[in-house]
Amino acid sequence: MKIVRLKGRARVVDRGDVVSELLERPGATDDLFDVLAAAAVAATEGRRFVMLGFAAGGVIAPLRAMGFLHPVTAVDTSDAGLALFRELAGGWAGQVELHKEDARSWMARSRARPDVVLEDISIPARGGHVKPQITFTELPRLIRRRLAPGGVAVTNLLPPEGRTWRSALHAVRAPHRRAVVITGEEWENRVVVAADSLPPAPELSRSIRDLLARIDSNQGDQIEVRTLR
Q1: pLDDT in tens, 9-35
Q2: Average pLDDT of the segment spanning 128-137
């Protein structure tokens, strides 16, 4: 893992992939992290937020800038990025608690009933990072069971390895009644927002874009939000 120090921020790069973007204050990263934060905030008014996969907490700066000031619970098998997160964000990040544990084990034993679960898990692979197979099999169903009534799952999908995009999207969407997928001009990932009930895609798109505009993120003009059947 390589840390690239820039003015006002630090970028965490692993195997050529930017796995986190940390800022010295709440604000826009001008990257996918802004979209993940906006999708979570726009889709629910709930306060209980769980992150599966923390890296170094790149989503926290846009999340706080958007006005989500509630506690965040993070779960990751590694705490390698925690010291950097505390260094740059410790003064403004609010309550962020990291559990060093496997996501499946934590979700299975936890009594938490989160309003939002942001699933951003990846593992190193040749040439970059991929999603582990559990994120397409057991974990989506487990997340659905643990969500509070009205809760939302937000999943960051990397380009799939060994399966098609259609198969990957269906796997994380299947446990839920409604879903949208967000694509961007600058990144290959797909962001899936899934729940039993969601606003129509055009309405959710406007809410996400409004949140991105509020923090002056450049991502608002570069995304597309569509219903995922």
Answers
A1: 888 888 777 888 889 999 999 999 999
A2: 93
What are the start-end ranges of the E strands in 2-160? 2-6, 9-14, 17-23, 49-52, 72-76, 96-100, 116-119, 123-125, 128-130, 152-157
* pLDDT score, position 41: 97
- What's the pLDDT at 202? 97
Domains of the chain in start order, with CATH, are 26-227 (3.40.50.150)
Residues contacting residue 87 through CB under 8 Å, at least 6 positions apart: none
Helical ranges in the chain per DSSP H: 32-43, 60-65, 82-89, 103-109, 138-146, 165-173, 201-214
- As a whole number of angstroms, the distance between CA 45 and CA 42 comes to 8
